[in-house]
Amino acid sequence: MTGQSVRMLRISHASLLLVVSLAAAAACSANSGDSKVIEGAGASGGAGASGGAGGFIPIGGSDAGPDKDRVVVIGPGADASSPDKFGGEPVGAAPQVVYPEDGIVAPPNMNSLELHFIPGPGQTLFELTFESSNLTFVVYVGCTPVGSGCVYQPDPNFWDRLADGARGREPVIYSVRGVDGASPGTVGQSEPRELSFTEEDIVGGLYYWDDGGRIQRYDFGFALANAELYMTPQQAGAGVCVGCHVMSPNGRKMVVGKDIPAPAPYTVFDVASRQPVQGTGGPVAGSANFFTFSPDSNQLLYSNGVSIGWRDATSGNVVNPQVVDNGTMPDWSSDGSLLVYARTSQPPIIAQPGIAGGSLEVRPFQNGGFGAATTLVQSQGENNYYPTFSPDSQWVLFNRSASNTNSFSNTVDGELWVVSRNGGNPIRLTAASAPGWCSWPKWAPGVHTKDGRPVMYFTFSSARAYGLRPAGTTQLWMTAFEPGKAGDPGYPAFRLPFQDPTTGNHIAQWVAEIVRRPCTGPGECDSGEECKDGVCVPPNVK
């Protein structure tokens, strides 16, 4: 063991964790005959190993290279003898990885993602290998059933270790090997897949509504396993449900639409207190289906599906009841210079929550008002809707339905497209759109980097199948957008892991900061929260 240091990493769900750090000096690591040694981490050992720290199992030569760690995890359904069962000829039936898609790009602080795979015939024991430039993670597990195959989900400690070593660098290469655990012989190996991480963490968090009529919240500032309940229909003053909601850029105000969108009655809430914002004439409220705040969070544009109006978000005073006479789904760019919205060829007669035959227009904001409209995307019979500006204000992301299905009910052919704020040919985000069922795209805050190139993230709602879990339940999906990437500037999407998989989840509204209620001690926070470091937080956060 001269020149090698042994380290221990704890992973909560693993029955035994084995770690070896191969940070050897160049002279020592050049000796390919050095033995890699792994140390038991406090579980009962299998054949050839003793329980607790101090049980050593030699596992072969020093092929990981200098300054590269090798971490071995013995997970559920495996034991300390499992690594020795994969020495057969690699001619067995190949397991098939089905989720996540090959080539996804994720924030380093996503905390975890499930991995779904289908075993080859007779395979009951599996070796999952994750290889980065400075780390090799090898996991041995049995099959935890899901659908027609198996699922493995690393815990946050595993994820953090893997992601931290690959931030903004070369992709992590991962694959699955399978054997018959009771009678190992030939080994089957899946095709390798890639997973990349951007350099920076996602900041802030998001608010979304579920089909139980509630608003959920996830804060990336805490390592939470699940989203937290933020607002119920009763808290919002709704009869049945809350739904369409929009956050101010500073995260301090929220517009909440309630009950039937015909148009929906809405109220502007203070996020920290969950109380209505009091304007000059009482709560800031009205009736509309779509909203957007100004970049400074002080102004609010609203639409009932027919026209777009403008009011002060603090006083509630109406500035202009009709900024746009035929327009809906407004979004104000973060640099404050442009408004984008959807419009139909024939103005609607009455307020409505959806459109068909939508085109996209922009209007400049200058001298305290909005200028003349310019067509950004002209409908040629398709439906273009739900436009939203990128964090750098250079791109407009939107949905398109080639069949011209109404935006309110489209769960069939909704796709993801982008267009430059300056116009030009729209670009289909093919990798992210497949297999369709896309709706309500929303950008996450900030511009990230990958291999020195700018990358931005966005989310959307989709009822697509989630790996081996069946389609039909709408979930929030995330993907990366790289403006300089040739061809398709998008990447395959992945499901946000903190959602309830049994509820339909919609419209992720992002903020750069989750604003929480200040507190000084116990009893000042809402039910389900506790006072920590002067703010109300979910219980048991780090």
Low-confidence stretches: 1-64
What is the CA-CA span between the terminal residues? 36 Å
Helical amount:
under 10%
The total strand number stands at 45
Strand percent estimate: 35-45%
Count the DSSP helices: 4
Major sheet summary line: 8 strands, mixed
The global form is globular
Tell me, rounded to a whole number, the average pLDDT: 87
The Rg value, from CA coordinates, equals 26 Å
Kindly name the structural category.
mainly beta
Spell out the key features of this protein.
single chain, 542 residues, mainly beta, eight-stranded mixed β-sheet, five-stranded antiparallel β-sheet, 4 helices, 45 strands, 4% helix, disordered N terminus
Outline:
This protein is mainly β. The chain has 4 helices and 45 strands. The N terminus is likely disordered.
Question: How would you sum up this structure, described in words?
Answer:
This protein has 4 helices and 45 strands. By secondary structure, the chain is mainly β. Residues 1-64 have low confidence and may be disordered. It is globular. The two termini are 36 Å apart. Strands 1, 4, 6, 8, 9, 12, 13 and 14 form an 8-stranded mixed β-sheet that branches. Strands 18, 19, 20, 21 and 24 form a 5-stranded antiparallel β-sheet that branches. Strands 29, 30, 31, 32 and 33 form a 5-stranded antiparallel β-sheet that branches.
Give the SSE layout.
Blueprint: E1 16-22, H1 26-29, E2 35-39, E3 56-61, E4 68-74, E5 96-99, E6 104-106, E7 115-118, E8 125-131, E9 135-141, E10 145-146, E11 149-152, H2 156-164, E12 172-179, E13 188-189, E14 193-197, E15 205-210, E16 215-219, E17 228-231, H3 233-236, E18 242-247, E19 253-258, E20 265-270, E21 275-276, E22 278-279, E23 282-283, E24 285-287, E25 290-293, E26 299-303, E27 308-312, E28 318-324, E29 328-332, E30 338-343, E31 359-366, E32 369-370, E33 374-377, E34 383-389, E35 395-401, E36 414-420, E37 427-428, H4 430-433, E38 438-443, E39 448-450, E40 453-462, E41 475-481, E42 494-495, E43 505-511, E44 530-532, E45 535-537
Parallel strand pairs: 4-9, 6-14
Antiparallel strand pairs: 1-4, 2-3, 5-7, 7-11, 8-9, 8-12, 10-11, 12-13, 12-14, 15-16, 15-43, 16-17, 18-19, 19-20, 20-21, 20-24, 22-23, 25-26, 26-27, 27-28, 29-30, 30-31, 31-32, 31-33, 34-35, 35-36, 36-37, 38-40, 39-40, 40-41, 41-42, 44-45
